[in-house]
Amino acid sequence: MISVYLKRRKNMVSITQKMHQQAAPLWQESFDHPFIKELASGSLPTDTFRYYLKQDRYYLENFGDLHQQIADHLSDASIKQFLYDGAQGLHDDEATIRREFFQELSITTDEIKTTPIAPNAYNYVSHMYHELNEGSPARAAAALLPCYWLYNEIGKKLVKNGSPVKIYQQFINTYDSNGFTDATNQMINIVDKLGEQADPDEKQKMNTAFIRSSYYELHFWGMAYNHQKWA
């Protein structure tokens, strides 16, 4: 009986596989976006990458906080530990990488403080907090997943040819690294585990959270490429 169950389970399509399939058109648009294409070719204007980094700093700060807040709502010890570790890593390791980029591009603390949050960055972060505070930890975890998974796929696609610009190559390497790939796989497993515990309505809402985050990921590139402003 156990072998039959495992065989059936192996043949089942997981919730994250379904999410990935449904988000595929949005992700393809990300792969084909001029921001990504020009990052790889080295033709992306430096001021556009600077804009991206300043907005991404705001996003990652909240992304890290959300890891901890989601963990606080869960009881599974292994999931909680991964999310707590992720929160610490995003505040420490990712911040260290970004500081190096900021130094190389002369992005000062004063410039960061006086840079307004762009509409898409604001909306993306608000969406994730909404999924936690008005939804559930499972929906919030699903909302976090595209940032891991999409960036990991972009890193793996771009690393094959690389970029002639050193800082762009460093950026690509970050998301193709073994450590980031491992974290991505763990996050996928977490969402699958939470999905297994969810009823059909909750599964659908987790899927919606994932798709919306994928939408905001796509428009993050456009936000940076066009130097989006409120007016």
From TrEMBL:
Q: What class of enzyme is it?
A: hydrolase
InterPro entries membership: Haem_Oase-like_multi-hlx, Thiaminase-2/PQQC, Thiaminase_II, Thiamine_Salvage_TenA
Q: Which CDD domains match?
A: TenA_C_BsTenA-like
Catalytic activity reads: thiamine + H2O = 5-(2-hydroxyethyl)-4-methylthiazole + 4-amino-5-hydroxymethyl-2-methylpyrimidine + H(+); 4-amino-5-aminomethyl-2-methylpyrimidine + H2O = 4-amino-5-hydroxymethyl-2-methylpyrimidine + NH4(+)
Pathway this chain belongs to: Cofactor biosynthesis; thiamine diphosphate biosynthesis
Which Enzyme Commission number(s) are listed? Answer: 3.5.99.2
Q: Which domain of life is it from?
A: Bacteria
One GO molecular-function entry: thiaminase activity
Q: Provide the alphabetized UniProt keywords.
A: Hydrolase, Thiamine biosynthesis
Every copy of the Thiaminase-2/PQQC domain together lies at 20-226
Asked if the keyword Cytoplasm belongs to this entry, the reply reads: no
Q: Name one GO cellular component term.
A: cytosol
Gene Ontology biological process: thiamine biosynthetic process; thiamine diphosphate biosynthetic process
Pfam families in the cross-refs = TENA_THI-4 (PF03070)
Of which family is this protein a member? Belongs to the TenA family.
| Function comment | Catalyzes an amino-pyrimidine hydrolysis reaction at the C5' of the pyrimidine moiety of thiamine compounds, a reaction that is part of a thiamine salvage pathway.
| Assembly notes | Homotetramer.
**In its UniProt entry, what is this protein called?**
Aminopyrimidine aminohydrolase
Instruction: Give the source species.
Output: Lentilactobacillus hilgardii (strain ATCC 8290 / DSM 20176 / CCUG 30140 / JCM 1155 / KCTC 3500 / NBRC 15886 / NCIMB 8040 / NRRL B-1843 / 9)
